[in-house]
Write a structure and sequence with these properties.
Elements lengths: L1 H11 L25 E10 L14 E7 L5 E9 L10 E9 L6 E8 L5 E11 L2 E6 L6 E6 L5 E8 L2 E12 L2 E13 L2 E14 L5 E7 L7 E11 L2
Antiparallel strand pairs: 1-2, 1-14, 2-3, 3-4, 4-5, 5-6, 6-7, 7-8, 8-9, 9-10, 10-11, 11-12, 12-13, 13-14
Length: 241
């Protein structure tokens, strides 16, 4: 479960993209750096077996679909993970659906989840802002879990701190851009599980973009030296006319 949670945290930043005007009013799509009037974005995640780049067909390990309204408020996020697709007995499978309510900074959402063949659960969450660039995702009816989010001055994700179940997980992101297009995102993940601290790094390197300069192909590495491609993400976009 720890490995699965770390990968989910790592992959969510793959949705991030490019810088935005710091004078604009906050809207959720800015966190992910999406350009243009994005209506829907679908991400297909594949393992790169032995460093070989997979084609955008066949056995993905995850698919993430996000839908947004014309202003850039998130409507739904659906995540389907199958980390053991080729095994006869599937484990580490998970499905999440988040439905968002509200606009701008007044946001709440309900998330339904299921792990493997377990029961379906539903949890309600709410954003509580402390200032313009920091908010906490509060889990209603559960004061033992919380996630503190820090945004940079362009409202992109900068830091996430999750607390709960005798553990803390901290993600810190460094974004490298050129010509107003993201080139690379470096992620430092620090986990404290019952006093045992581990630090890992992830690199996301954009390879291709669409006409709006949103990334369409991303290589993921598990080391700062980028010696071996571990994951590949293919992204497809639909836009409002």
């Amino acid at each position: 479960m720890k490995k699965t949670a770390a990968l989910l945290l790592f992959l969510q930043i793959f949705l991030s993209c490019n810088g935005q005007d710091t004078k604009v009013t906050y809207v959720q799509k800015l966190e992910y750096g999406l350009k243009g009037t994005v209506k829907k974005v679908t991400s297909y995640i594949y393992r790169a077996e032995n460093g070989k780049i997979p084609a955008n067909t066949g056995n993905y390990i995850g698919i993430i679909t996000m839908s947004l309204d014309s202003l850039g408020n998130v409507i739904t996020i659906h995540k389907l993970w199958d980390f053991d697709r080729n095994a006869s007995t599937k484990i580490d499978n998970a499905e999440f659906t988040s439905r968002f309510f509200g606009k701008g900074k007044d946001i709440s959402f309900k998330e339904t989840s299921r792990y493997s063949d377990g029961d379906l659960t539903e949890i309600s969450h709410k954003y509580v802002w402390s200032d313009d660039y920091n908010y906490t995702i509060i889990t209603q009816d559960d004061n033992t879990h919380s996630t503190l989010i820090t945004l940079d001055k362009e409202y992109r994700l900068s830091k996430s701190v999750f607390n709960g179940d005798d553990m803390q997980s901290v993600e810190e992101w460094e974004t490298i851009s050129k010509n107003n297009k993201i080139q690379e995102i470096k992620t430092k993940i620090t986990e404290d599980l019952e006093g045992e601290v581990t630090v890992t790094y992830q690199i996301q390197a954009v390879q291709e973009y669409d006409k709006y300069e949103n990334p369409t192909v991303i290589y993921g590495y598990h080391d700062l030296s980028k010696q071996k491609v571990e994951n590949v993400i293919y992204k497809e976009y639909k836009y409002y006319e």
